[in-house]
Amino acid sequence: MDYERYISDGNLEKVLLGFATPEEESEYEFYLDIFPEIQTEKEEVERKLERLAFKEAALPPAHLKTAVMQQIASETGSPVATSTWYAKRKDVHFENVAPPPHQMRVHVGWKILLIALLVMIAASILASVIFFAMTMK
C-alpha cells in the first residue's frame, strides 16, 4: 500500500483523533517508519485540526475569569490580577448569557409557531360558527 492511499482512506485522521484500533495504530507506526511523507501529512492535519478548534471555540464570558480570580484570591489571601485579554476584544460581546432566574426565555420560532396555531384554532372556530349559522337558516 502506498502512502497516498493510506492517507486518502482516512486512516491518518482516525489515528490522530483516537478512533483507531490498536492494530490500526501499529500499522500507522509501521507506515510512519517507511514513509516520511506521512509525518509531514500528520503535521499538516494536526495544524488544520488546531485551526478549526480555535476557529470554532466559544470564549467564556469576561466576568467569569474575574469571579474565579477573586475566589482564588480570597482563598489564598493574595491579590490576583483580573484583567482579561478577551474583555478588550471588540468583536466578542456577551450580554445576558443566562436568563434571570425568575424569567423563562423562549426561542422566537416557538413563539411564531404558537401564534400560528392560535390563529388556526380561531379560524376553525370562526368557520364552524359561520357554517352552523348558514345551515340554521
The biggest sheet amounts to:
none
Distance between the termini: 87 Å
Mean pLDDT across all amino acids = 81
Share of helix, binned: 55-70%
Number of strands: 0
Number of separate domains: 3
Rg computed from alpha carbons, rounded to a whole number of angstroms: 30 Å
Silhouette: flat
What is the H/E string?
Answer: HHHHHH
Number of helices: 6
- Report the β-strand fraction as a percent range: under 5%
Essential attributes:
3 domains; 6 helices; 66% helix
Structure summarized in a few sentences:
By secondary structure, the chain is an all-alpha fold. It folds into three domains: 3-56, no CATH class; 61-92, no CATH class; 105-137.
SSE topology sketch:
Blueprint: H1 3-8, H2 11-17, H3 22-34, H4 36-56, H5 62-76, H6 108-136
Notes on the protein architecture:
The protein is 66% helix and 0% strand. The protein is mainly α and 137 residues long. It has three domains: 3-56, no CATH class; 61-92, no CATH class; 105-137. Helix 3 (22-34) crosses helix 4 (36-56). The model has no long low-confidence stretch (mean pLDDT 81).
